[in-house]
Amino acid sequence: MTTAPIRRDDRRISPVFLGIAAVTAVSGWAAWTGFSANPGLAVFLFVTAAWIVSLCLHEYAHARTALHSGDITIGAKGYLTLNPLKYTHALLSIVLPVLFVIMGGIGLPGGAVFIERGRIRGRWKHSLISAAGPLTNVLFAVVCTAPFWLDALDGVPDAFRYALAFLALLQVTAAILNSLPVPGLDGYGVIEPWLSYKIRRQVEPFAPFGLLAVFAVLWIPEVNGAFFDAIDAVLRGLGVHEWDTYWGRDLYRFWDGTEEVPPALSS
């Protein structure tokens, strides 16, 4: 395993990320205590900020794994600072995923950090770099759902409970979508090193359109229904009821007029 000398500034946590984390903490506190006159606004700020935090951690996981796999340029590019403004495509990495959450409540995977793959030797290392991002979403989903599957919801305010459920839904959708073996997504990145050179060359031109193709397919009602049935099944396995995700999404869209937090179902 290769380690690279990196300057302290290359790995210092960015004030931008710290600011996003602070918004997450303050809005989470507001959702928990009912401090906000509009609980939906607190849920919106908490889920959006926490979603951006997870996007930053997703990209950090790619970068950190690449660093220890041989790409010693990662630090100089600023990827270890957790600063989303350092990403190759800030629009794709942050703006579009947030917009899709606001519009449709789906965890759209973003990208990307630019990794110099030529510096990395070994197919397993390439696969692990690609897998690190979705695995981060899986870990985030486990943390969000921990109060549910640990049966530790006593004393958790309903608004905060619903916010966690909706945030977990975003993490599960991001993990599943990004794990699809579609060019341009991390799932394809996992298997790409194991494909023949000929196949990789044939598939390469389609990589920029992979995510768009997935999104287009999800517009098909039958596919969309099957996809969200699978998401609900995963969440139920983690103890999250559809009631929780429904009201989490409803509160998140506070501009639609939801003013009261409905009582939670008995755990």
Explain this structure.
- The structure is a single chain.
- By secondary structure, the chain is mainly alpha-helical.
- It has 11 helices and no strands.
- Helix 2 runs antiparallel to helix 3 (39-67) and helix 6 (158-178) crosses helix 11 (242-252).
- The model has no long low-confidence stretch (mean pLDDT 88).
List the helices and strands and how they pair.
Layout: H1 8-11, H2 15-33, H3 39-67, H4 90-104, H5 123-149, H6 158-178, H7 186-191, H8 197-203, H9 210-218, H10 221-237, H11 242-252
Helix pairs in contact: 2-3, 3-4, 3-5, 3-6, 3-11, 5-6, 6-10, 6-11
Number of helices: 11
Give the mean pLDDT.
88
* Principal-axes shape call: globular
Give the strand content. Answer: under 5%
Main location: membrane
Protein name: Site-2 protease family protein
InterPro entries: Metallopeptidase_M50B (IPR052348), Rip2-like (IPR044537)
GO molecular function, one term: peptidase activity
Explain briefly what this protein structure is.
By secondary structure, the chain is mainly α. The protein contains eleven helices and no strands. It is found in: Cell membrane.
Q: Could you list some keywords that capture this structure?
A:
membrane; mainly alpha; metalloprotease; 267 residues; Rip2-like; Site-2 protease family protein; single chain
